[in-house]
Amino acid sequence: CRAVRVWCDLTTDGGGWTVFLNRQQQDKQINFTRTWKEYKMGFGDVGAEYWLGNEFVHQLTAKGDQVLRVDAEDFNGSKRWGVWGRFRVEDEAHNYKLLAVMYSSNSTLGDGLLWHSGMQFSTIDKDNDKHKGSCAHEYKGGWWYNVCHNANPTGILTNSDDFDSVGWVYWSPREYKWASLCWLQMKIRPPNFGTPDPSDGPGDCSSD
Is 2 within the bounds of a domain? Predict the structure, then answer.
């Protein structure tokens, strides 16, 4: 067991969030085309672009399901958020299988995770998706790919219509539309953490 630095969001929706993925515009973008071991143990810099690590996210959810929140902003300055009431990542023996259910109907971000819940994690050197090829190779990231994705948070951060960019298919709950994103955070906290207003969120692509 070793100490791990994490990004704690103490303001959004009452705080208490552990950020396990952060994507943002910065001078040197982090390469998210990584191996299984790198996604297991994490990479990047806390406070900048980073992935906490599947093993640590599993440990955080092993004692009980967490609440997941995704905050995002597109290149037009539009901001959205989504909340899932039950989030869990299983252990490595189960290839860090994802559970992301109980999507909140109040969310302004569509349920792009519906397609991914129940999937095992895939990387460029370990393919667990349902695609005849490798989604990780095709879309330049590591993720709970299906055939292949409705959300691609670990893709290339660029203002592009290409599906290998950081993006979300259901940019709004009722609209099947791809949006490339300039900023995205995925974060978790225990259930029943206060009674805040979930629409109170951060995120600004204009800030460093």
Answer: no
